[in-house]
Amino acid sequence: MNEQQRIDVAIIGGGPAGMNAALVLGRARKTVIVIDEERPRNRVTRETHGFLTRDGVSPSEFRRIAREQISAYPSVRFVSDIAVTIEGSDGDFLMTTEQGATYRSKKVLFAMGKKDLPFDIEGLAEVYGKSAFVCPYCDGWELRDQPLVLIAKGAGAVHFAKVVSGWSDHKVICTNGPDDMTEEQREELKRHHIPVFDSPILRIDSIDGKVQHIVLEDGTNVPCTGIFFATKLVAGSELPQDLGCRVSEAGSIIVDALGKTNVPGVYSAGDAATELYQAITAAAMGSLAAVGINSELLTEAWESVK
Ligand SMILES: Cc1cc2nc3c(=O)[nH]c(=O)nc-3n(C[C@H](O)[C@H](O)[C@H](O)COP(=O)(O)OP(=O)(O)OC[C@H]3O[C@@H](n4cnc5c(N)ncnc54)[C@H](O)[C@@H]3O)c2cc1C
């Protein structure tokens, strides 16, 4: 496969979504290029949980095993690069990359995940993925029964408190400024004996990624061994919009059950196209999108025979 050849499928993003799509398409004997910047959102964590047969594996080991298995299918090629432009239409898309390469493909799969916006709390980056997490389904078990702080406000804080109750009864809420709650919501939290601190957070103190306490501007020290918070996410890339893909208010590409977008020949899978942020969900979406793409390619080839 060289850069000028028109390959079957270009996959942008090589996380669980892109790699599972590559595996299924490689087994379907399609020529595939996976362009991957190699900066998945979970790179800050030591372990990935909840993925059957891989529970507790590190993100880098997950990637190593996946790449090794996909290497059995020679029509799949990985390039470590960033896709920066895309144009064209179904049957002939043209991508350029940061390193100056160009690739042409019949179909495109956007699997570039989402990105965290920079944190505005001092010390949060140091504990992110080590003792501060965003998803109790991913990391709640490791923090079970521990004293936790939930950084959230408004209805989101009440929802978070309810969900995290499944893992720990020892939790307080820090709203980091005005709580944005109704009287009813405050009463609800009181009924569940969950203290709420609304003083802005001055900083988070930690040792080797393990949070020790949260220091508030009013001088309060809130000791804890874990944090859950709602990170602000943006789309991993603007390229889908450049092709005319419809995107939801949450920044997810709108797709059907097989990952098809509103633009012919363009698919999306994984975090880029959902707000259910789980590696196994992303991988499953990648697999479904690969089936959708392969079906389309097979139909086109079948119908081209006159
Ligand atoms: C702290 C943390 C802990 C988590 N823990 C768990 C857990 O325990 N269990 C679990 O199931 N899930 C967990 N998740 C969620 C899980 O990591 C994601 O749902 C999953 O990685 C999404 O896979 P993806 O393939 O859609 O995107 P990603 O894994 O984010 O991969 C996207 C890839 O696309 C690349 N990319 C982006 N733009 C471009 C471009 N323009 N050109 C080329 N490449 C590009 C990125 O660099 C990246 O390599 C966690 C997430 C975080 C943030």
From TrEMBL:
<keyword id="KW-0560">Oxidoreductase</keyword>
<comment type="subunit">
    <text>Homodimer.</text>
</comment>
<feature type="domain" description="FAD/NAD(P)-binding">
    <location>
        <begin position="8"/>
        <end position="286"/>
    </location>
</feature>
<dbReference type="InterPro" id="IPR050097">
    <property type="entry name" value="Ferredoxin-NADP_redctase_2"/>
</dbReference>
<dbReference type="Pfam" id="PF07992">
    <property type="entry name" value="Pyr_redox_2"/>
</dbReference>
<dbReference type="InterPro" id="IPR023753">
    <property type="entry name" value="FAD/NAD-binding_dom"/>
</dbReference>
<protein>
    <submittedName>
        <fullName>NAD(P)/FAD-dependent oxidoreductase</fullName>
    </submittedName>
</protein>
<dbReference type="GO" id="GO:0016491">
    <property type="term" value="F:oxidoreductase activity"/>
</dbReference>
<keyword id="KW-0285">Flavoprotein</keyword>
<dbReference type="InterPro" id="IPR036188">
    <property type="entry name" value="FAD/NAD-bd_sf"/>
</dbReference>
